[in-house]
Design goal:
The complex is a heterodimer. Chain A has one domain: Thiol Ester Dehydrase, Chain A (Roll). By secondary structure, chain A is an alpha+beta fold. Chain A is built from four helices and seven strands. By secondary structure, chain B is mainly α. Chain B has a two-stranded antiparallel ribbon with strand order 1-2. Chain B is globular, with a radius of gyration of 14 Å.
Chain lengths: 176, 129
């Protein structure tokens, strides 16, 4: 199983905002146990989807070179349960960005209804982690393409977000 | 220009939100790490909240000068050298380092900063006497 908790980006404004959707299906394995006979998407996995939306938005600010990790859930409020058949929309907005990390607000909607409201902190890994590999460039590029990042991505000047050259080069030379 | 009291109240609110502590715990003497349980990522959270609350820009290393604390020129055997201490004091005049100076183990530095120090830092940034 791949750890993908968003299905597709529908908006991606570099440095500002990303909107991703997640379709919840009864076929997803975790729903068999959470809970038997009463399937509800766990709030922790909603947070993961929010973190993936916000984390990729933050990572793009450094052309996906920084190792961006979720460092803190500053606040999380849930107003309703998310169930099979729902389409969740995660809207992540960068509130503050520095060399060390970023603060991101994520609103989770089901249609017009606000389902959850989150404040997340992301850190850029450095020091002893500087040489660790979180994702192989090829894997990350595959994920970004699968999410439609470059179809909807827009640079601050309105031009399309291109696939980063360094990732394409790494992809061309990386073995499977 | 905000008063000292207004600054204190906003700093208190920022720390309550960033650290999930009660307002009563955020006293001027409380240390961020020892008393309020701040971890390293919380300092970035605090910086962002102060920037928003006071509409200021806080450059990296201004509030917590990691560049000095990790500079081999200033650190020997895990302790700040006299030159390192002096550079640190110059950079953060809003923190009383007299006690830390007695045994300046770099690892202990995070426990030095108090709520009052943060308030003095903001006062300095805003030019409030």
């Amino acid at each position: 199983m791949r750890w993908f908790w968003i299905d597709r980006f529908v908006e991606f404004e570099c440095g500002r905002l990303a909107k991703a959707i997640k379709n919840i299906s009864l076929a997803e394995e975790y729903l068999q146990d959470h809970f038997p006979g009463y399937p509800v998407m766990p709030a922790t996995l909603i947070i993961e989807g929010a973190a993936q939306t916000g984390g990729l938005l933050v990572a793009q600010c450094s052309d996906f070179r920084e190792k961006v990790v979720l460092a803190k859930v500053s606040s999380a409020r849930f107003y309703a349960e998310a169930v099979p058949g729902d389409t969740l929309t995660y809207t992540a907005t960068i509130e503050a960005l520095q060399k060390d990390g970023a603060s991101v607000q994520v609103l989770v909607h089901r249609g017009e209804e606000l389902l959850a409201q989150l404040e997340l902190m992301f850190a850029h890994l450095d020091g002893e982690f500087a040489n660790k590999i979180l994702f192989r460039p090829k894997t990350l590029l595959f994920w970004l393409r699968a999410l439609g990042t470059f179809q909807v991505g827009r640079l601050p000047d309105g031009n399309p977000l291109p696939e980063p050259d360094w990732m394409r080069q790494a992809e061309a030379t990386e073995a499977d | 220009m905000p008063t000292r009291e207004e600054i204190y109240q906003k700093v208190q609110a920022a720390l309550v939100d960033a650290l999930g502590v009660d307002e009563e715990e955020v006293t001027p003497e409380a240390t961020l790490v020892g008393d309020l349980g701040a971890e390293s990522i919380d300092f970035l959270d605090i910086v962002f909240r102060l920037e928003k609350a006071f509409d200021i820009k806080i450059p990296q290393n201004e509030l917590v000068p990691q560049d000095i604390l990790t500079n081999a020129q200033y650190v020997k055997d895990g302790r700040l050298t006299p030159e390192g201490l002096s550079a640190l004091q110059q950079r953060i005049p809003f923190v009383d380092l007299s006690k830390f100076a007695e045994n300046p183990v770099v690892q202990d530095f995070p426990n030095v900063m108090t709520v009052g120090d943060i308030c003095r830092y903001v006062q300095m940034k805003l030019g409030v006497d």
